[in-house]
Transketolase
Amino acid sequence: MTTAEDTLEAVAARIRTHVVDMCAGPEGGHLGGALSCVEVLSALYFSVLRVDPRQPGHPDRDRFLLSKGHAALALYATLAERGFFPVGELAGYGRPGSRLMGHPVRAVPGVELPTGSLGHGLALSCGFALANRYAGRDSRSFVLLGDGELQEGSVWEAAIAAASLRLDRLVAVVDRNGLQLTGPAERIAPMEPLAERWRSFGWAVREVDGHDAIRLADHLAAAPWEPGRPSVLIARTVKGHGLSFLAGRTDSHYVTLSPRNHARALAALAATDAAR
């Protein structure tokens, strides 16, 4: 958890640097979508989730599922910073013998389930929430979805089920960065008004600046927002946030940073950090 000297913003800055470093490795990585959700993960793991890195399988833990599993870089960096495994292990991302693969796997401490086949995370999180209810636990289940992922019909089937089962210990976060591999999400499959769409499925809905870690933490900590309703937080974000030469661009989706662009990215992050 954070201290007065180690704020959510400082944690997010370290996580963002780790993501950039991993994308400078030989395999590269899904840079844009990892950078867009850094503050969401910082808020969850350093202010909201009831988890213990020393006991990652504790039965009373809160569950988190990264449904947009291609953002694994951000999750790995967050788990390492939170103490689930050594930060030094991040340097081996994507290398032969590393457990840090392109999408999360259960070999990594703190990862609940393998993810990355889009459209399944919300249904799986419904299962977590329902299991906790039957076990009499007050644990919450959180899931992070990509906005392009909302084009999967299975997401909306799960949304219907969650509302009908009154799973108010279930919290979804939508990383609304507006871009997917093939272009702007709204051009490919319009979803707006997105908040009203979720409300029509029976969810309690809030919207927030997805790069404001403090406001994210406040909203997520307060869930459930309405008794008997699952909660969804629409986080308005920027793909590739923090890197001016890639932010808001589709080609930030998957990047292998050259030595020159790696140095350029680190300089951009350092300038942002200095300005905070």
